[in-house]
């Protein structure tokens, strides 16, 4: 296979200042200002491209431990129902009262990190394939950011990569990302039979066919997100994504297509779960209660058994929003994750569940919704190396969670079981989303987005709500609010966007964004 070598352009654009700071010493290893690399360092083409593309890839799901802690463990993992804090803080996402610093991590750190490296990549090379991959990576990062906040700076971000710019509507961001994914796929199709440097690509080691499938799979994910906001566009984009006519590659089909970020120093989820104050994150009661109720064989690869109140080697998740002291909270099941494990971006199981939902609407005639659903579960089992001959015939309801410490017991309000329901489309959708939630662990932001869109899986509300009346008792956060300092540095643009795009609630956790308009959830 022929390898593409990039043409380096040492322009003045690479010599600007795009510095970002942090509280950790190795932060710049992940988010270095590559506009400030010395001329001697620039002599190696592969080094520069690896640095810039790697800088983008490291910020889709942040590889830097502190940034990952805020965006994934404390935010997405909790609001998505996967994790719980192992200790009670005065302010937290669990209680709906995070600090302003926490609110700004995705907005003020991830956006500049991704965009400054993207600008550097464009200045550093004219290699079409590398730039197409960079465009896909940028799309993957910004899709998560707009899902969290709603309106964000995107099309008018300046040459400094900073966010002091007009905000695009969420619809505009989605529309632009669809266009950019199409452009990237078209470019990579022209370069099939070649590759980019494996050393420069920490996700697919330069395999362009896999990047094409990932881009189409991301497009499918985004299309299904629009089912209630714009069903016409949702169907059109979903059909385009899965199309395999005329030599098109379509979406992920096997576990070999899964997207992982590898080559990181240490898995940040491991750092937070095992090293921060003895471990600041634990498995949630919601997730482990579903898995225990259904004898899910993946429980042992997701979680560690624990011993609580004399109960030895059992799996006990921790209630989100608990007020336990750290010694008590840390006794619950931890994540079963290794120091060198790669970071999941997307897997083929999710794609099968997306296609199952398409089939429910009559948009995918390649197979039935039930068969796609079953394939999604089976591929997840295959991915984790587990087996169960009875899981998909299980009719056992989700049982009561009996907190071993007696404080946070609850009974889930759901009829969902793994065995396919042959008659109720509503229950079928709940089954699809619930199994996708389990298979997508630990993609908390994706879980939170799908929970807002569908209301599934059925999760327990936080045990303690300190939102000050923003979020009603028993309800959930619909979006992330902007950090207050943005009203000082970009106030005109931000105020205009809030009034234009969030008129029903303003800049609040409880305000629904554009695609969050399921008619059954308007009062949630």
TrEMBL record:
Q: Which Gene3D superfamilies match?
A: 1.25.40.390
Q: Does the keyword Lipoprotein apply?
A: yes
Asked if the Swiss-Prot or TrEMBL record annotates the protein with the keyword Lipoprotein, the reply is yes
**Keywords linked to the UniProt accession:** Lipoprotein
Q: Mind telling me what this protein is named?
A: SusD/RagB family nutrient-binding outer membrane lipoprotein
Task: Please tell me the species this chain comes from.
Answer: Candidatus Alistipes intestinigallinarum
